Amino acid sequence: SLDRYDCRKQLWADMEAEGLTLKVEPHTQRVPRSDRSGEVIEPMVSAQWFVKMDGMAKKGCDAVRDGSITILPERFEKTYFNWLENIQDWCVSRQLWWGHRIPVWYAEGTDKYYVARSEEDARQQATAELGEGVVLRQDEDVLDTWFSSGLWPFATVGWPAKDEASLKEFNRFYPSSVMETGYDILFFWVARMVMLGIEFTGKPPFHTIYMHGLVRDGQGQKMSKTKGNVVDPLETIDQYGTDALRLSLVTGVTPGQDVPLSMEKVQANRNFANKLWNTARFILMGLGDLSAEERSALAVTEPMSEVDLAALPLPERYIVSRCHTLVGKVTDQLAAYDFGPAGQAIYSFLWDEYADWYIEISKRRISASGDPEAAATARRTLVYVLDSCLRLLHPFMPFITEELWQRLPHEGPSLMIAPWPQRDDIALPTDDEAVAQFGSLQALARSVRNARAEYRVEPGKKIAATVLVDGDLAEALEAEADALAFMARVDPAQLKFESLLTSSETSAGEEDGSTVRLVVGESLNAFLPLADLIDAAKERQRLGKQQKTLEESIAKINARMSSPGFAGKAPPAVVQKAETELAEQQEQLSGVVKALARLPPPDAEELAAMKAAEELAAAEAAAKAAKAAKAQ
After folding, report:
1. Residue range 211-259, pLDDT digits in tens
2. Tally of CB atoms within 10 A around 187
3. How far is CA 387 from CA 271, 393, 429, in A?
4. Cα 159 from Cα 594, distance rounded (Å)
5. Which of 242-246, 464-468, 509-513, 601-605 has the lowest mean pLDDT?
6. CA-CA distance, 121 to 117, in Å (whole number)?
7. Three-state DSSP state, 254
8. Are 244 and 269 in contact (CB under 8 A)?
9. Which parts of 248-406 are beta strand (E)?
10. Cα torsion 277, 282, 283, 284: sign
11. How confident is the model at residue 506 (pLDDT cuts 50, 70, 90)?
12. CA atoms within 13 A of residue 581's CA, in its CB half-sphere
């Protein structure tokens, strides 16, 4: 009954007395201690129960190799196989206070034991072998937690089936579809579910295993109380909302990689939720004057057809086409378990295209157009696109999307069970020409806004503009002159359209520096007669920067196209794309050079500034070269 430490000293003394020792020397070793009590943890030999694993492991490997189970990302297959192919028999005995008791009963006073489903079954076995009056004692150990949890896929859905009802429940819910969990418990839990499921039911518990990463702090560090960087999800939800946290955990994430979670990201997604709410609020306000019948007619019951799409004006054809493209993209990404890019695509579309462009244009159509048909078309498009996006976004942000969908005209009791926007794997119709034409309108509006900002035109001041354009694009832009003027902050009465091929107007303005030339594309230019607002030196600087950027880009394209093997090895589509890009940029460069040539010559002050800038650039280049030479 000696203490363990005293016992060890006594054993050593006894060995020395018997002449069984050779020498004494210090030895450093790790001494494990309990994280609760701080006591040294000592090994103790005891009887343990094991599960023989080699046969079960082979079945688990076969299920992945024959395609019955798919592991995503695929790189985790190596981890899975490495563990199962080198598996050892599994010790399932645990000396814990709580858990499933080991199903073994010992016959008191004998060395007999019985493995059974219940004490009654064990007693029947014991009585048959030892006779009546046997006293049984169940093993006091409990099963390993991972053994118990490994039974979860089938033990919770009626297994083992004792009657028709439990068998029906089992057949309905087993096997399931997708197992999604962290990569750190692939062999602790997932592999064991696979092995136990096949062993007891003959079928794998699921067809796909999707491994996600671990959630870390914003700097990618593992969360710990010691570091003080633990993010409490309940506190985060109270501050930013459940949907913002959900979206933050999904977007910007690569399958199987750890998830850096910063409060800045959660806050940004909270702002996105606010943006979505305000967008829906604007739409609902526009429906306030409609009758119940008119509101009901706006409910989205099926995807828009190609005929209905073709009948819409340009902005509506654009936004519906982009929405349909988004539906197809997100559908494919979700099918491939590429959740992060899918969520980001919805986010970008709603914020950058729907809210920033179409919502702004629709305000003019609904409130100021005076055209009831245009207003009705805008309302119908607003509801259609938002409804489609809410369906796409619902798996990521279920609470706000359900709330908003319930407030929109809709059919059905819940968004959760509403049909997916794309049905029967049939791609939704799009109008590529409308997308390209509206893209030109966007590029033109951005160019005008950028020029206004660069020359510091007062935000509320409307300016004149002449658009030089030809062909179908000219017709499309003229039809949407009001939308273009609104988005570009141009005076609609002073917005003119001329042929790029024949117009010579504003050339005088370019000569005296009173007009800014915008080279938007190969077949789209614009002149802004800024008159007193223009600064010739600043315009020269702006065009010079654009010239330098285009020259560098053209040089890169030429270098790539002239590299060995590009023309011979690159796919024809890639070569054609490079050639088209080169031609477009050369055309833009030509326009920039001409615009520079039309500017009035710099005065003495500007020449002095240009000379000083050149000397500074030369000095910096020389210093950089000297530093590089010294480093060599």
Report:
1. 998 888 888 888 877 788 888 899 999 999 999 999 999 998 888 888 8
2. 16
3. 20, 10, 17
4. 81
5. 509-513
6. 6
7. coil
8. yes
9. 259-261
10. positive
11. very low
12. 16
